[in-house]
Design goal:
alpha+beta; 5-stranded mixed β-sheet; 41% helix; globular
Length: 317
């Protein structure tokens, strides 16, 4: 395809632990947002076929692109590589049947990125845009600061996948990579702080995510140092270890709902008991256990923040 003045769309991806956040923009339209579950799992053709035949798999196909998303890389001969099939998002979670998030983000990020590119291409086609299989796309993404050393390797893998093409549920695609930029998580927030508060030349910006907590140390008006820890909110949820049959993911939703409503009922509703008395007892116990875990988590997070700030007296947000 002849190279045009602009890529067909740009895409920015945050490989978050709670959701994969995707902002995309067609070259003649406004930015749009979509999200996908955060999982990515190395699957096999057999596992895809088996799940696709189940009622849940058939329902996933009907629910839309983000519910049945997979990509397959090619081998050196240009043939589909049976060992490099990535089930992404909802499909990955259903096939894996266990938590796939305890893996470095960059390791699964390639499949998430390619899956997101395919979903956006198909979404734009569904909206009436003409997007060929060799469409042009510019990519931006985020990785945790402690994975910054893998950026060059990740870029090489992205460039190779785009150049060779990859398989998707709708067939082969071979996009043109117009640009690739990968930045550490937190950089955008730090830069926004500097724009809004230019009088603070030295500061530390803390950000709390699902899996990580990140600190950006600003010196002389510029982001200088990134520090990260595995003290995202998931660290609090993991303390309960699936108490009363409630998964970590479900507990997160319940905890926020209960806090917003100032009521223990969401804990009651989510427990696995059918007997009303047992259900109420379990709900109240789960509420108390979460409160204890939250206080313990707060203490750990506070110690980490104080440790980072121990050497400097700076503005902190």
């Amino acid at each position: 395809m002849p190279r045009t003045a602009k890529p067909h769309f740009i895409i920015a991806v945050d490989f978050g632990g709670s959701r994969t956040k995707i902002i995309y923009q067609h070259r003649s339209d406004q930015p749009q947002l979509l999200t996908m579950p955060p999982e990515a799992f190395i699957a096999t053709e057999e596992s895809l076929e088996q799940y696709g035949r189940t009622p849940a798999g058939q329902m996933s196909r009907m629910q839309g692109l983000t519910s049945f998303c997979w990509v397959q890389l090619l081998d050196k001969k240009g043939e589909p590589d049976e060992t490099k099939i990535g089930a992404v998002g909802h499909l990955g979670a259903q096939i894996a049947l266990y938590n796939t998030l305890n893996v470095a983000k960059n390791e699964k990020a390639l499949y998430k990125l390619l899956g997101a590119v395919w979903v956006v291409q198909q979404t734009l086609i569904g909206e009436g845009y003409k997007i060929p299989d060799d469409f042009g796309v510019a990519v931006q993404c985020l990785l945790p600061p402690d994975e910054a050393s893998f950026v060059d390797d990740f870029k090489a893998r992205v460039e190779s996948a785009f150049a060779e093409g990859f398989m998707t549920p709708t067939g082969m695609v071979q996009p043109q990579l117009w640009g690739f930029e990968c930045k550490p998580e937190g950089l955008g927030v730090a830069r926004s702080f500097l724009v809004n508060y230019p009088e603070y030349r030295d500061a530390t910006v803390f950000m709390l995510g699902h899996r990580n907590a990140t600190a950006v140390l600003i010196r002389d008006g510029k982001p200088k140092t990134f520090k990260t820890s595995e003290l995202g909110f998931k660290a609090c949820l993991d303390m309960l270890h699936g108490a009363h049959g409630v998964s970590t993911e479900r507990l997160m939703e319940v905890a926020f709902e209960a806090r917003m409503k100032d009521d223990f009922y969401p804990y009651y509703r989510v427990t696995s008991y059918s007997d009303p008395d047992l259900k109420e007892k379990a709900g109240r116990e789960l509420c108390r256990e979460f409160s204890k875990a939250n206080h313990a988590y707060y203490a750990r997070l506070k110690n980490w923040i104080e440790d980072i700030l121990s050497d400097d007296k700076l503005i902190c947000i």
